[in-house]
Amino acid sequence: MNDLHRRNPCRLPVLLLITLSTVVGLSIVWEFELEAWVMHWLALPYDADFEDAERWRFVLTVTGFSLISLIIPTILLRRLIANTRSSYLRLKQAQAQTETLATYDSLSGLINRRIFMDMVRNQLGLKRPAAVMLIDLDHFKAVNDQHGHAAGDIVLVEIARRLEAIADDNGGVAVRLGGDEFCLLFLTFKHQSELCQIAEAAVSRLGAPLSGAVEPSALGATIGIARSWTDAQDASALLHCADTAMYRGKEDGRSTYNFYDSQYEKQRRAQADLELALRRAVEADEIVPYFQPIVALPSQEVVGFEVLARWLKPDGSTAPPSDFIPVLERLGLIPSMTHSLIKQACRAANRWDDRLRLSMNVSASMVTDALFPDQLLEQLRQEQFAYHRFEVEITEEALVGNLDVARQNLSKLHDHGVTVALDDFGIGYSSLYHLTRLSIDKIKIDRSFFEPGQTDHLPMVEAILGMARSLKMQVTAEGVEEFHLPHLPSWLANSGCNYAQGYLYGRPKPASSLFCYTHSSFAQQAG
């Protein structure tokens, strides 16, 4: 009915008129002709002299009721048909919109991630080649932060148009995977040189000035390339390979492209495994303190230990700081590791003679953290470790970033009795400046002044010792090794050096190897 009405809107009224005419005709025929015959056939009484006026009244009554019974349903039917047609059109429109949203990205109009993955799966299922260029915009977050998301959307749309042009020029498909991540998909075999040309063109065109939405220098593109015929035979794996290659470009400085390299993938996985292992190591106190003796001069009696970090791996091996400190710095875990080492070192040292001190290097980020002094003092209090037995070693790097905060923090520690030492003294560019303005109690002369055969450095050491005496500071000489025996220790003592540290007096050892420094053993040795 809907289709008939749509093809000929006038047909329904015509049908209504024909139906009504038929009803009127049948009523007249019945009243004036058929009624008498039927009554006679049924042997029923019938008054043939019935007035014609009554007969016409009957015809009109029947016609009126028929007209009403036909018009009202017809009106309702027409409305029902119109509503049904409107609902059908809305449903078709919604279905078309749904299909569009399921296929295309709503902002850029490019193929979306789901369809992209289906296309790659189908291609690989047919054993046909596929090359993926994963494209990530450089510094796009800054565009949103500085100019707002509306400007960011304008940028994404323009980037999409440029990618469409590149895809059309090279027989590919442009895709938006989400956010500022796009893709170029090629479903025919392309030589590496051809892919290089396309990638270079993409880096250049995507980094070109935009149409006024943001500054030209704000954007760039980093591309990772993966190919089904060399890298992966699964859609998800192929996209992962492209992502790995793109990530390498981010590390190499951005606005570049890289092909997937399985060796780099192995290195990246190893790095991820290392980071996970180190996170667990910090949480489980697997990074433990090793203790290197510090001796007084000239007696060469042990007066304390420097706390050095070692990683006791689950396989039983021990890793030096160079293997894990840079990673912990990148992960922001140095403060957590430091607090763990302080806890372990204090608990070990509390079993020793209470004349022994602990010295520990603290990172630049901690020294310039306004909360650091209170956190350190509270931890020492909880471990029941006397403030005067603890020494904080800092480097000049900690003073360059925020000198005012560092000055306040060091003054607070100094006021509570914690010793502050400036480590690696003599190799920085502004040590004298810091010495005169900060609460420094001790300086540690860098080991580079005592390298074998470098006797020309000794006059400089003498000058440092003289300066320290004038500033009423103590001095520790680092790097006193076995090959210096016996000249260097006696020379340092005669020149006014207070302490020495190095392999000559002992290598770093775990707390379990220092049982001889308990209070009773230390007293016996002293006696």
From TrEMBL:
Pfam families: EAL (PF00563), GGDEF (PF00990). The chain crosses the membrane at residues 12-30, 56-77. InterPro entries: Biofilm_reg_signaling, EAL_dom, EAL_sf, GGDEF_dom, Nucleotide_cyclase, Rev_trsase/Diguanyl_cyclase. It comes from the Bacteria. The keyword Transmembrane helix applies. Residues 271-522 form the EAL domain. Keywords: Membrane, Transmembrane, Transmembrane helix. Gene3D superfamilies: 3.30.70.270, EAL domain. PROSITE patterns: EAL, GGDEF. Residues 128-262 form the GGDEF domain. NCBIfam families: GGDEF (TIGR00254). This is Diguanylate cyclase. It comes from Pseudomonas graminis.
